[in-house]
Design brief:
CATH architecture of one domain: 3-Layer(aba) Sandwich
Distance between the termini: 6 Å
Number of helices: 6
CATH topology of one domain: Rossmann fold
Order of helices and strands: HEHEHHEHEH
Helix content: 40-55%
Oligomer: single chain
Strand content: 5-15%
Strand order of the largest sheet: 2-1-3-4
Length: 208
């Protein structure tokens, strides 16, 4: 079945197996490749962002990326005493875990996943030189990655390889999301947003 053929109001009624196929198909496919930069998507909830940082550190220490780019703006409500951005918070954890400071490129302005991609490309241009394009990894929670890849395909340069790297998680993976109400809600939201992208011609249809 194609996702576009499901009525928007019926998306939540899909089975757990159907939702898993929509959200996770291709997410765990890994071609073993490398990229100069790993874009690490910020998050409004610190424990989930910590998982993404753990995934980024794992990717970096494996040698598959040379630079990490944490991306995300101010988390005023979560860290008011520090007034840190999501990117700064993630960078601090990366450095404390052995990532070299010179291997971190901060992107402090993005407020959404779309802006993560647009602002990260701007920083790539600023860091490597105007007009520069390079292959990237996108690091995020597994249930967030398929839509993130759709957004990356839309907003990042067409000539680059966009690889995805699912972070380790006990709540947002293919085998455990259905056990947690907040993860079920997030899966439903992700599917609804993917449906809109397909319905508006921003992404290819999904077979599930």
């Amino acid at each position: 079945m194609q996702l576009s053929k499901v009525k928007k109001e019926d998306l939540k009624n899909l089975s757990t197996e159907e939702k898993s196929r929509i959200i996770f198909d291709t997410v765990y496919d890994d071609d073993g490749g490398n990229a100069p930069v790993g874009i690490v998507l910020g998050c409004s909830y610190i424990p989930y962002m910590d998982e993404r940082v753990d995934g980024a550190i794992e990717l970096y220490k494996s040698g598959r990326v040379k630079k990490l780019m944490p991306t995300g703006t101010v988390i005023a409500d979560l860290l008011p005493e520090k007034r840190m951005t999501e990117a700064e918070y993630m960078a601090e954890r990366m450095i404390n875990s052995g990532v070299k400071e010179e291997d971190i490129i901060l992107e402090n302005n993005a407020r959404t996943t779309i802006e993560n991609m647009i602002c990260s490309q701007l920083e790539i241009n600023r860091y490597f030189g105007n007009g520069t394009t390079c292959d990237v990894f996108i690091v995020s929670s597994p249930l967030h990655l398929r839509r993130s890849k759709m957004i990356a395909d839309l907003y990042l340069p067409k000539n680059i390889k966009k690889r995805i790297y699912p972070c380790p998680t006990d709540r947002h993976g293919i085998d455990n999301w259905m056990n947690f109400p907040e993860s079920v809600e997030q899966v439903n939201d992700e599917i609804a947003m993917m449906w809109v992208m397909i319905a508006t011609g921003q992404a290819e249809d999904i077979e599930f």
